[in-house]
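To: structure subgroup
Subject: Chain for Friday's discussion

All,

I'm putting the inputs and outputs inline so they're searchable in the archive.
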Amino acid sequence: MRKPSQRLSDSLTKDNLWLYILSLLSKKQMYPYEIRKEIKKVFDFEPGNVTAYFVLHRLENSGYAKSGKKIRKGGPDRKYYKITEKGRQELKKGKAFLRKFIKEMI
């Protein structure tokens, strides 16, 4: 059985991966592998290989992110994602919720 603290960590990270992805995309366009690397570096957890792609696909289908290919010299083309205005608004709501949650817990 997982400890309550581990369940909390999972629910605030893996279960809400959209929040981390939009946060990174609000700073710059990124491709999926780069997003996974940055999540590990910045937020100190590693989403599953398929999970990040699945969440990106859902974010794009919902209008929160947009993709486009970039042609790279000397390497394969990559599909980069960027946040949309709708995504920025949703990210803002998510951050506001977390701030309120933390404020009430302290």
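Points worth raising on Friday:
The chain has a mean pLDDT of 91.
The beta strands are 65-70, 78-83.

D.
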